[in-house]
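Tutorial, part two.
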Amino acid sequence: MKKHALLSLLLLCACALLPSAGVAADYASANEVNTRLLRVWASEEYGCSIDKDGDLIVKKKSEKLVVSVISKVHLIRVAGYFKRYDKLSISEMIRLANKFNNKKRVLRVSIDPDDGNIICDYYLIYDGGLNKANFLSVLDWVFGLKDSWENFVINVGKED
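Running the prediction step on this input gives:
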């Protein structure tokens, strides 16, 4: 009887240590990464929703990022879309985007040649899985790069 009670107590303790159903762990294998999981992780710090295309929309004040999971190749694309800087021509914006890309090397900035709007995107590989801290730091970093890009443009390509 004592063995049964001890075994029951150990089983109860082990179950208490397991994550509850519906609670996202801080790590996901490559096959577990999806927009629903990323939404749970990001919603602790940001406003989040999933759009009609299945992409995660992450909001911070008036800024937003679009997070797309490309599961076939284990990539997450984090993209920010911004209005053009009206004081410069589209060709000057393209020149600055190329200069910025050459100097920064991690984030890609592209300019729509028709309207001059800006797309900043970053691709995160998650072949070996993904942890929450890494994903959230990427979001923080991309939100911060918008300011870096804007300062770069305002200063016409001169470093801060």
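The two ends are 73 Å apart (CA to CA). In part three we will examine how such features are distributed along the chain.
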